[in-house]
Amino acid sequence: MPPLKIGLIDLVSKGPANTLWAKIMHANLASIMPQVIATWCEQEGHEVTMICYTGYEDLTKELPKEVDLVFISAFTQAALLAYALSNYYRKQGAVTVLGGPHARCYPDDAALYFDYVLGFTSRSIISDILNNCAPQRPVGIQLSAGKQPAVFCGVQERWKFIEPTLKKAPFLQIVPMLGSVGCPYTCSFCIDSTVPYQPLDFQTIRSDLQFLRTKYKKPWIAFHDPNFGIRFEDNMDAIASAGPPKSFNFIAESRLSVLTVNHLDLLQQNGFIALLPGIESWYDLGNKSKASHITGVEKVNQVSEHVNTIFRYVPYVQTNFVLGLDSDSGDEPFELTKRFIDQSPNAFPGFSLLTAFGEAAPMNLEYQKQGRVLPFPFHFLNNHLAMNIKPRNYDWVDFYDKVIDVTDYAFSAKALYRRFIHTHGMQTRWMNLMRAISSEGWGRLKFYRQIRQNLLKDKSFRKYFDGETQELPAFYYNIIKRDLGIWWQWLPETALSHNANAYLDKTVAG
Ligand code: SF4
Questions:
Q1: What is the value of pTM for the model shown?
Q2: Pocket, ligand 1, Cβ cutoff 6 A
Q3: pLDDT digit string (tens) for 79-94?
């Protein structure tokens, strides 16, 4: 068989981006799996062109041309752009494949627009597609290996695809790495809760780190593990054997309970400079933190003390909260978060609105059974542009009032000043400031205020939020049209809506 011409598109952005954060950080958010698939395809003798779309490129110029087969990787927020691109490529005669979180969360919907939709992907699945690269229409084929691969290509193998992507990051280049996949914990809201924990080869971690020391004076590395440090000693040994202390700057997401003083000491010695523990809520989902048995003010005090301890070892900590959980009611959860912001002024607060991503997590089935999942177009499902679950204990306007209040508090001049003076190091201070004044802080605040206004002034807008109509408000329609730009013409008309209860329907049908 002659070699195929293959295009690989990693959609970090869902459309043109113009924020400082996007300019500096989007290229650092590239996914690992598209790089792995690109490497596998090359190893099978095919000709591969890969691009990572950060929102700053002219996509029409960058897209791989005259290809036989196109792999697109997308989070749900970029699904509509992915669907439009698939349509475009199919019209040129190419076969299209979707992978990434959207393919896992909404496989049935994605199969309407792609020839192949990949869940967990193994090398043999990719080989099969390469060997029988036939169009599958009108409904594509869903393929899954049932579990994550045991072996991923390491950084050295992927370097050919990592390097050009990181060149797009103007100041700070962060290499994506994996120490493990899955998680041994079972938080029912989490996509990784059903993926068995599997450490990857520690020898590969070591040799990849050694390789990176030949590329950068002091490499920055982000571990993409959902829960870094489960095999803590093994990870630390691999890192420590890769170079003298402080040879690297590491970023990782970890449970608070992993971050004990002993572990923090080792993390500091090995160059960990940013940690992202999840707090989620003061009442629920507490099995991620040490404070699983306590709630409310007591939990705020304990978590805050813990986070302040982390800062004695690590200069940058982002604490993640979910707003709108069923366990929350009234003012108290929001007031507790404000209290935490006061007590841990240097922690960067990351807020997410409760979102059910299709069949990502077991809890989503419950939301669908309760008839609470709203059909917001995928374009808005990124944890902040829309909350696609009707809150259990809040009216929408009341909820947005509280979200606006806590966001305003977290990114007020006073909070920014306190975060600035309590944080050490120019890089971390600058990072906090950039995130606050960019789309994440002030940008979101402006958007939330607009939503609140629409809820009050526009009856049909409100009806959509209450689930009384499925007709998409013009406000959202216009945003999609604007963001997709010339790709709007390629978006299949049906792609603006999806079955919000597909997971339930499928489960009932058996
Ligand atoms: S500990 Fe973190 S990664 Fe693991 S299941 Fe819970 S939320 Fe997911």
A1: 0.95
A2: 183, 185, 187, 190, 192-193, 226-227, 255, 278, 288
A3: 999 999 999 999 999 9
